[in-house]
Amino acid sequence: MNLARPLLVILPKTLFAGFGMRRKIYFGLTLLGTLAVAVLLWLSLGLSGINLPGLMLVLGGTLLASVIGHSPGPVLSLLRRIPAMFREAQTSTAVDYKPFLQIAERYRRGDVRGAERAATAIQDPFLRGGTRLALDPHNGEELGRMLHWRIRQQKEDDSRDIRILRTMATFAPAFGMLGTLFGLVAMLGSLGQSGIEHIGMAMGFALMSTLYGLLIANLVFRPLALKLEDRSRQQLLHMNMLVDAIMMLYERQHPVLIGEFMSAASPEQANLGNTQKARSMSLQGMRA
User: Fold this and answer.
1) Most CB contacts within 10 A, which of 79, 81, 201, 251?
2) What are the mean pLDDT values of the chain's consecutive 10-residue runs (288 residues total)?
3) What is the spatial distance between Cα 175 and Cα 96, in angstroms, rounded to a whole number?
């Protein structure tokens, strides 16, 4: 039960993380429809009861095998970070870039101290750290190498989490089949003590472990892996765009040019405020 509790708490939050109200309604209706079909199928087949030992074997065995294969730290960390990870993936690309453009304006005019103080207002951790590195006296090649190393580290972390989820999706059906085999062995062991009418019910009860494994693998772990892969791809594209913007800051290019680049690279995320106002502010800075 202790192994199943994290999944029961985390999975509902994860499935709804980053959903708008309309998507939540669609998802809820789809989920209710799926459950209704499952209940009707359950009743039509005359099944009764829940194979709790089989469910615990699937969940516990999947987690145990994943911990053995990937070490406990990454697996438990992934289970704890799934809700926050998807919330961050949804919002981390929606950043207000106006503080960054103001820093670019100050740095271009030679106000390095003011730019360093203003860097604390940047919300994105990667952009904030890269901006501070750009304001320090670094070689351009060294700066680019450090920023790309951080991107590679982020990519490796995301790839590890995706591998863990896919590993769980592989193990879940196997442990479901193992639970079914245990049930069949127990059924055959008591075959001479029970009537023939109980064989079908006992076999159906044993096969529910396989059902649990297939459902958990194909409705939980594989969709989560696909979702994380998509979020990771968006995040890495966003980080690469930020690297180019930071290098433009390092080269003291004009804030209007930097703003236009960031807006073109991520038009749906870049919150640059009033473009005309930002352009006029930068032009006034040029005249000053």
Assistant:
1) 79
2) 48 50 59 60 55 83 89 86 61 68 90 88 89 84 91 92 93 91 78 65 77 90 89 90 92 90 68 45 44
3) 47
